[in-house]
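In response to reviewer comment 3 from the previous cycle, which asked for concrete evidence that the modeling workflow produces usable outputs, we include below a single protein chain processed end to end. The sequence was submitted unchanged, and the resulting structure tokens are shown without manual editing.
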Amino acid sequence: MASITTNGPDNGADRDPVSVFEGHRAQMIRDRMVINVTLGVLFVAFLAWSVWISRFTPDRLATGIPRIFEYFGTVMPALQWDVLFDARNEAGRFPAGSIGYWYNDFWKYLRLIWETILMALTATILGTGLAVVLSFLAARNCTPYPWVGALARRFLEFCRGVPEILFALILVFAVGIGPLAGVLAITIHATGALGKLFSEVNENASMRPVDGMKAVGGSWFEQMRYGILPQVLPNFTSYALWRFEINVRASAVVGFVGAGGIGAELSHTISFYSDDRVTAVLLLVVLTVTIIDLLSERARHALIGKESLK
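The workflow returned the following structure tokens.
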């Protein structure tokens, strides 16, 4: 980078200060231009590399996108208007082409979706509790010892660095097929993600209440409990609700490896049937996630106040 020197052997003591300033300014512009051009070249090079590695080419997209619609065309229900709302016949079966025929296993799907929501709720509660504790240890302004903070941060990185589905695969092997493996897998990942967010919130909290607690002889726990927690609790709650939304979706995904919930049924229908039952389950999953998103959004806005969104 350029530096201002007015009395060097080359510049001379008699140089005009304005020309020195202009020379320095021109040098800074040239340096900035070199940096920008270098960064631009690197960006284009990495973009081209990623396109080449992923084979993200227009011809592949043009060939692949129609196949997506072809697949959904094979799993769409063949509904018929004249029998769309017909009830069961004398044999106790819905006529083909009716909504009842399409959602013949509706109550089974509903039970599995409820199981999925409970899995997400349990994992969110457990993950939030663990994240709160670890966030105080990981935050640089709150940790009692630097080495404890470093260990807590590395642990949180590990928890959120491994995908839930990989944790679920390991835990299915350990505790068997079922919702428990899914709950544990999502809890571990939620702990890592929320612990990171919570610790950053702690680091932005005012330390004046903590100093006051120190002055009157408060322990570390009392400093965190009465000095930091009241400041950060609304943000903690907002992040936990946001994480609950994510955990509902994650609960559906981990079911693909046998970790319970509606994901297991979706995997089963895709693997063995590939018919209109796939769209029946998918629509219920999307509807459930949408309702939870809307409810959670309203709750979060109520917690953080609508004024902050304006």
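Confidence is low (pLDDT under 50) at residues 1-9. We consider this sufficient to address the reviewer's concern, and the full set will be provided in the supplementary archive.
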